[in-house]
Amino acid sequence: MAAVATGARRRAVRDGDRHIDTAHLLHSLIESDPGVREAFGEGPRLARVLGYLVQRSIGYGLRWQGVRERTGALPALRGAVDVWSPSAAAALDRAVRGAVLRGEPRAGGLDLLAALVADPQCRAVEVLERAGVDAAWLAGRTADRLTGAARG
To answer: Is pTM beyond 0.90 here?
Structure first.
């Protein structure tokens, strides 16, 4: 999770955004976690999502620049030079709580993916849907993988 958060922060800075949102988290998560990439299954889903995320980062997502992501249950958490969107903060919290409920000492990539797709109003879900990935389908695959990991 620390590597994902660091990657999301770096991506937000590089994109010129004033805060880290759930799309930054999704992008960093996909890049850093093979288990998350596997959750997308066979076919072009993952490539379409990455393509959309890259387009967003090079400027096609300018309508989001400077606009704070507003969904989520928690207030923004302020870091040294950045601010988490409420949705990103809530997703990080849900990921940790989900891992704890499964008896895990820390959250992993699939926990964060499950937390991201649990908020249908967040940017990560908007990215998924614009790329043609059904967030409910991905939530089911992620839950199955987390359940299998807990049993195994």
So the answer is: no
Angle, CA 60 vertex, CA 17 and CA 2 arms, to 5°: 40
User: Are the beta carbons of 26 and 53 closer than 8 angstroms?
Assistant: yes
Q: CA 88, CA 80: separation in Å to the nearest integer?
A: 17
How far is it, in rounded angstroms, from Cα 25 to Cα 86?
13
In 3D space, the residue among 108, 116, 89 whose CA is nearest the CA of residue 146 turns out to be 108
Q: What is the DSSP string of 92-133?
A: HHHHHHHHHHTT-SS--HHHHHHHHHT-TTSHHHHHHHHTT-
Residue 36 vs residues 39, 94, 101, 145: alpha-carbon distances, Å: 5, 17, 20, 10
Each residue's pLDDT tens digit, 11-35: 888 877 778 999 999 999 999 999 9
HEC secondary structure over 63-91: HHCCCCCCCCCCCCCECCCCEECHHHHHH
